[in-house]
Amino acid sequence: MINNLSKICAAILLVSSAANANEQTVYQFPEVQSASVAQLHMLEKDSVEYWQRVSGKELKRGVPVFVNQAEHFIRIAPKARFESGEVFKPRDLQLDKFSVSDANAQQLPMHAIAAREQMQNAGFTDGSVGLKLGQVNAKAMLKTSQALNDNDTYLVHVNEKGSRNALHAKTQFKVNDQQQRVGMQLSMGQKRVKDNEVQLSLYSPEGEQLDVRYENGEAVFTYPLETLGAANGYYELEANVETKVNGQTVKRSIKMPFVNSSQTITMDNAKVTALGNNQYQAWVPVQVTDSGRYAIRATLTGKGDKGERVKLATVEVAKQIDNYDQFMMPFSVSKAAKAPFELVDIELTDQTRMLKFAQGQ
User: Fold this and answer.
1) Report field, pTM of the whole predicted structure over 0.90
2) pLDDT tens digits, one per residue of 219-234
3) Which residues of 134-156 are buried (b: 16+ CB within 10 A; e: fewer)?
4) Is the dihedral of CA 177, 261, 41, 165 positive or negative?
5) Overall CATH class of domain 49-162
6) In this structure, which topology does domain 166-262 adopt according to CATH?
7) Would you put residue 247 in left (φ > 0), alpha (ψ -120 to 50) or beta?
8) Where are the domains of the chain?
9) Is residue 270 helix, strand or coil?
10) pLDDT in tens, 146-197
11) Where is the DUF4785 domain positioned along the sequence (predicted)?
């Protein structure tokens, strides 16, 4: 009876301490958690497609399409535009108005085409149409005789599934704040893409287009990035490449997301106190650079009978922090262990800006 009463008192003490620790939220996992998976620092992707935006005027005049294999698909889709706060949607496209010609204005065959209704059945609800060329390895010009508005915008999307000429991109995923050069390796097979073969665009998480250029395997920003973290999404680099492979023009597009990161929270040494009855408290002093809601996840360890380090319980705590503060982490352990008690597998999270930081042990 006395032992049960002691456990109840210890539990009340933990709850009371948690309530007084700036209304922090506490969660103990039912089982000890393994260390977090290593964070992604580099991102690699391949592309066998390209896309480009064209105006209604260009589409009526003729737009070159680059196709190098029989297995391909060309999609043309109307894209809404914004002017003076209003949204203007282009006219739906009429498939029977499209034609393809070569450099000498000679008609080229088209086949396996899909009208707007068929595209909708395939999951494309944007009013697009699709077609294939009946002849490849030619300088094909795609055009329409439909009466489109000159200023309307359309997306031409060419996919060559299974192509050997895949664009490979390798970029940094986690970019340090104030960093203005980001590694961006672009290659096609053994061929490294040249600077003058790349058109690079940079978009902020809010969709704003920013100044950027491609220089010697790097994306170079004109100005430092302003948005920190991923609460509103990622920054995105879009590369459009036009190069020659065995004398043929190959076009590829690829989008590479990344996060602008900064170490917004740091911690000092944690102090662990044994309360008795397998109850423990860890106090973790922290400092933040920006106000927000932060969290810490850590596992309590002690010494086993043979002196080995034993993982006892994993707890996560979150609270609002404005400058200097500390987390109070209560642990309720099911098995006995000996001192010294320490925290391992520590992970700090800036929940406001959606950033994670692994704390070195």
Assistant:
1) no
2) 999 999 999 999 999 9
3) eebebebbbbbebebeeebbbeb
4) negative
5) mainly beta
6) Immunoglobulin-like (2.60.40)
7) left
8) 21-36+263-358, 49-162, 166-262
9) coil
10) 999 898 999 999 999 999 999 999 999 999 988 899 999 999 988 899 999 9
11) 23-160, 275-356
